[in-house]
Amino acid sequence: MKFLLSALMVAGVFAGRVLVEQDASPSLAGVPKGWTAAGRSPPEEGIELLIAVKQTNLAKLETELMAVSDPRSERYGQHLSNAEVHQLVAPTAQSVNAVVEFLKTEGHQPTSLTSNSDFIQVSMSIAQAEALLNTQYYKFQGSSGQTVHRAFNYTLPSYVADAVDFVAPTVHIPPPSRSQPVQQSSKSSTAAAAPLIGNSPKHLRELYSVGDAVGKAPTNKMAVTAFLEQHIHVADLQEFYKIFCGGLVCGKGNVTLKGDETTGLSAGVESMLDIETITGVAGNISSEFWGFSGRSPDNKANEPFMKWLSLVSSTSDTDVPKVMSTSYGEDESSWSAAAASRMNTEFQKAGARGISILFASGDEGANCKGGKFVPETPGSSPWVTAVGGTQGGSSEEAIPLSSGGFSNRWAMPKYQAQAVSSYLSSASSLPDKSVGYNTSNRAYPDISAQASDFTVVANGIPLPGVAGTSCAAPTASGVIALLNDARLAAGKSTLGFLNPWIYQNSAAWNDITSGASEGCDSGRDGWPASKGWDAVTGCGTPNYAQLLKTLP
Q1: How far apart are CA 531 and CA 374, in angstroms?
Q2: What pLDDT, in 10s, does the model give residues 310-322?
Q3: Which of 6, 157, 329, 528 is deepest in the core (most CB within 10 A)?
């Protein structure tokens, strides 16, 4: 093996370098909305590179995931352990050694973040990273004050490039976090009925037939995630409970904090919305807040989203929450194909372990840009549960901001093919094909929940009129956590990857048949709601009492 590595190293020196990733718009003119280029990155600043080493047996992983996630399977609920998942997809020794020896030869000390070394981390200065990757880093300033360092492309010696999926942070620029909530986009009957409360925990529990159900299983855990300096303030959470949870059980003990940055001077509206909503819907279930700022505690820049995925992968089965809600999304094309494929694998790994991953579908309706519908990710991934949005009281309708449609990258999974086919053949007023969508690909969202009239307590101030699918994702996640609790209390496993179960039991969800998403003309000319699944509200909103009856 040592001889082989030496040969590889010598070959790498003379074989030149290979382009690994390139930004879709490789110039300062292509900077995403919300970011401003601020010149070259300071060479002395630190950076924490995450190297995703290529995994193996990916087709087998998908087979295993579906075997434990399809209620019709004899193996349903028999989830793999984290050790079994790591063993299944472990990179070859040659791939790991190629990466490690390359880094050591360049004078760096790598660290394996996972037991099989499919994620390797190495810290250095930006100047050293530029030399390592043969690139230049630029500094970008976010509209809410965040700073990231990114490159437009990078290369690696061919023998190293063959061993990795990607290196981060490099070409991907994340969406900037919002400093202010999404304001109410349209009038809602919920607001008219309860102008000072709107979608309080009490109202959401009533609307979704939760009743007095609370957690009973001591091992049940749920979590929300936050990125780019979205902090939590425990005092704000307690004030939210004081205002809205009279007579209710909200939360359970202290929120467990995980990640490289969870608290700070200012609480984030998005982060407080997530933790207040999920604990308001699902009482007496232990909750966690996973926060990633884009910088490690010693101030080295990193890629926060991938850092979250690597931490999920390295967290034990006993400790990892089995429901994770994320209010995060961006255009599907913002990630390279290699990075997006690796994300899918990480989602599959989580699902195979019995972890439910839910994402807000987005707040741009059909997301029309240049006269074309643009899909949003991670909601467009076939291996997560995308949550769209509704508004109104007992008679819910689609909220125009709810994002949905069809992926440009991923084929339609079998679990949703029949439902989507019915929609395309029976729904009226479908968007014209000229807006560019591929109905043979993955369709989203999968489900929906209320996305308007929320009040968030942040920095000691109640902020009413908050809207967006960032409201819907933690709402739906809270209901899923309660359903997990029922299974755990009965001595069964958690639900894990939800989508096969959702589509097989779509009648148990509250079907939303009115309203539509925004399209290209700032009106409701996007995707219409319709009987059954649709591309704005999915299979509908939760009905806890009915869903409880469907549990395998």
Answers
A1: 24
A2: 999 999 999 999 9
A3: 329
Tokens describing residue 234: 């425990």
Under the banding of pLDDT at 50, 70 and 90, the label for residue 126 is very high
Is the pLDDT assigned to residue 194 strictly greater than 80? no
Residue 239's alpha-carbon distances to 263, 355, 461, 462, in angstroms, are 17, 30, 9, 9
Q: What is the largest CA-CA distance in the chain?
A: 75
First to last CA, the chain: 49
> Of 33-47, 173-187, 537-551, where does mean pLDDT reach its minimum?
173-187
Average pLDDT in the 441-453 region?
Answer: 98
Q: Give the H/E segment covering residue 37.
A: strand 35-40
DSSP secondary structure letters along 323-383: EEEE---EEGGGS-HHHHHHHHHHHHHHHHTT-EEEEE--SSTT-EETTEE--EETTTSTT
Name residue 424's amino acid. Answer: L
Contact (CB, 8 A) for 435 and 520: yes
User: 101: part of which helix (H) or strand (E)?
Assistant: helix 93-105
CA distances (Å), 61 to each of 163, 268, 345, 363, 493, in order?
19, 36, 8, 32, 19
Q: Phi and psi at residue 388, in whole multiples of 5°?
A: -85, -170
Total-model pTM: 0.93
Residue with tokens 């994320």: 326
Q: What mean pLDDT comes out for the span 422-434?
A: 94
List active site positions. 270, 274, 470
Give φ, ψ of 165 to 5 degrees: -85, -45
